[in-house]
Amino acid sequence: MALNGSTTNQALLHAQLELWQNTFGYIKSMALKSALDLRIADAIHHHGGSGATLPQIVTRIMIPSSKIPHLRRLMRVLVTTGVFAAQHPPPAAGSSGDDEDEPMLYTLTPVSRLLVGSQNLAPITTMNLHPAFISPFFELGSWFQHEEAPESCELFKHAHGQTCWGQADRDATFNALINDGMVSDSNFLMDIAISECAGAFQGITSLVDVGGGLGASAQAIAKAFPSVKCSVLDLDHVVANAPAGDTGVQYIAGNMFEKIPPADAVFLKWILHDWDDEECIRILNNCRKAIPPREEGGKMIIIDMAIGVEPSDLRHKEMQAVFDIFVMVINGKERNEKEWKKIFFKAGFSDYKITPVLGVRSIIEVYP
After folding, report:
1. d(CA 26, CA 32)
2. What are the angstrom distances between the C-alpha of 123 and each of 79, 304, 347?
3. Which of residues 118 and 85 earns the better pLDDT score?
4. Is the pLDDT of residue 1 over 50?
5. pTM of the complete model
6. CB-based contacts of 96-103 (< 8 A; 24+ apart in sequence)
7. Any residues with CB less than 8 A from the CB of 46 and at least 6 apart, and which?
8. What is the mean pLDDT of residues 318-322?
9. Most exposed among 33, 98, 112, 177, judged by the fewest C-beta atoms under 10 Å?
10. What is the rounded distance in angstroms from the CA atom of residue 351 to the CA atom of residue 225?
11. Which residues form the active site (predicted)?
12. Residue 164 burial (C-beta neighbours within 10 Å; 0-12, 13-18, 19+)
């Protein structure tokens, strides 16, 4: 029976295609995870800019010969989704160039180039694809059906019996997964942030990076602005693993919900989206108490998403919406400008400025 006389068969098939794109989206994520686990990008990178054939990749990733046909199929997905590129090698001298059996050459794309080199995004991508963060979403439907106290309203705790931060405190391997992920993101993003919005960091003499982990962001700021005294505030078990030697940064063990050390500026990168509004206001109140008045240079510098603020193309909108669901795993929340303004003013701040120059993220300057 026809659903609608004006609905064509091709429209129905297109709708099914869209349904399948959403249904099987996890395959793309798992293909990427497999590439990370096998270090395929590193194998291709090892062969330089000319690319690597499948046999050359196999010699680096060390898989059984019985799995090579399956690897070829995995590579086809990774090429189709833009993680890698593939092309036939240039024909040899005297060859007609028509040999379709010639092995494909796999090369890096802008996406997979982010997974190699000394400052790559492999650790944060590995963290985001870790089973501890993915498995709670299998319970998302049932989670919605259960009434829970606000302090228990966390997908991670619903799935694992403890909060994400509680597990990090008890499990050194999981703690390293998070810290290494945050370091890789900061190593990637901070040079861009400083280049795109240097004015946010100028005119201050001291800065405390709240929840700054192992200090990658603070180190980047200290390097770019040597006159700024930079420190990092984080929990005991995080500071205990801070890098040794002269990093140009002071590490302070403490709790941002209790007290923040005084400084001209408080820096929060990807911190406030981890917490609900009430907890954010507690953090923001402590930030306000730690900084001088605006006329004396006091400010907060936040790197986080501001949903709906430019750029407004579909890919940015989709990723901001997806990330808002992702941070539900730790009872977090991505905010639009109205929601940011609400918590800023409730915490006693008087003004703010959003600069959307970091892809789906923005630099937000907040003034007392």
Report:
1. 10
2. 21, 19, 34
3. 85
4. no
5. 0.89
6. 103/53, 103/54, 103/55
7. 52, 60
8. 94
9. 98
10. 25
11. 273 (proton acceptor)
12. buried
The token pair that represents 320 in the structure block: 């901001």
Residue corresponding to tokens 């040899």: 92
Encoded tokens for 269: 């990168």
Measured between alpha carbons, how far is 72 from 79 in angstroms, rounded to an integer? 10
The tens digit of pLDDT for each residue in 31-43 reads 999 999 999 999 9
| Token pair 């898989």: residue | 63
Q: How far apart (Å, rounded) are the C-alpha atoms in residues 336 and 339?
A: 5
- Of 250, 257, 253, give the one whose Cα is nearest residue 239: 253
Closest residue by Cα to residue 274 from 256, 251, 298, 252: 256
CB 282 within 8 A of CB 310: no
Q: At how many degrees (to 10) do helices 277-290 and 337-346 cross?
A: 60
Active-site residues: which are they?
Answer: 273
Averaged confidence pLDDT in the chain? 91
Query: Which token pair is 118?
Result: 């000394």
Q: Are 195 and 188 in contact (CB under 8 A)?
A: no
Radius of gyration of the chain (CA): 24
CB 253 within 8 A of CB 288: no
Q: In the numeric block, which tokens belong to residue 355?
A: 């600069």
